[in-house]
Design a protein that fits this description.
Layout lengths: L2 H19 L2 E7 L13 E6 L4 E8 L5 H10 L7 E6 L4 H9 L3 E4 L4 E5 L2 E5 L19 H12 L8 H8 L3 H13 L20 H15 L7 E5 L16 E3 H9 L7 E5 L4 H6 L2 E3 L5 E5 L16 H9 L4 H20 L3
Parallel strand pairs: 3-4, 4-5, 10-12
Antiparallel strand pairs: 1-2, 2-3, 5-6, 6-7, 8-11, 8-12, 9-10
Helix pairs in contact: 2-11, 4-5, 4-7, 5-6, 7-10, 8-10, 8-11, 10-11
Amino acid sequence: MEKTIARDIVDRALTRIVGETGLKARVVKWEPRLGPQDKIRPDALIEINGQQQKYRFAVEAKNVDRFETLHQIRAFWPKEETPQLLLVAPYITPTIADRCREIEMYFADTAGNMYLRGPGLHVYVVGKTKPPELHVADVGRTINPAGLRVAFALLCQPELLNATYREIAARARVALGTVGPVMKDLERRKHITPDLAVEPARRRRLLQPDHLLQEWVAVYPAVLRPKLNIRRFRARHPKWTAGANIRPYNALWGGEIAANKLVGYLEPQTATIYAPQLPRQLIVDQKLRADINGDVEILDLFWNFQATTPAQDVVPPILAYADLMATTDGRNLEAAKMIYERYIGPSFANQT
């Protein structure tokens, strides 16, 4: 979410908190650095004044239209973290509000719906209708399958920002004409620096790669993943993945197996495989049979570059992270957080 839009939403939500509860609420600091070694940077730190106590919350401003977004946010800001997290959104539906209560995710929106808790504080307001004047932001060219391919390539290989459009198109496996509009959209929404023609002395770079990542991860399961020709199978031997080498089949592990290889945390239950075309010989060799409910899924590989990871038979860490975040399994979300902390976060830090 763009900085100016996020701040406007936070200001409007705080105004509604004051109006609905009579409590005082203010922004202490925009984009504070919190957490161990100041690595966490929420959109704001706010303070709410109760009758006898002050309550501070770290604020994340997000558009929330699916449960996965809530679980992504919760994975990065556990309930025991201090200060507590407050999700601020343009609008929270009653269904989303119910899920927020289930996972102890405090929230406030611009309509006056809210869930706030603390010692001596318990506020829960739902059922407020969406304000008619609520602005629905234009998500632009990036939030479509081709745009997500380009954004993925740039997140994984930020040096592509200074390559030709033809090179970007080749790495992202998209038509050449796709790249220009996506780059303009990323620039318009402040994800990348201005065009080199405007500032020729500067090289392009990602401005806030983590924001673009979270946007990509939230949209990938619903927009791009279903377009990857997903096919499901079931293996005759449940433990077949333990010693299987899929590189000779020009395939890579994603999801839970990628997590197991990258951080050694999960006991994989589902085998996710990405390949440029259906690896028929792998299917024959491992005696996989088609099964719509099978525990093996094979998807089209949608990029054209080599990721640098300790395990050469896995997808780029960003995709493994996205696969895990698309689930609601607690261990998968914990593994996703470990992948982020070990691979993705340090990579982004090196770009700034």
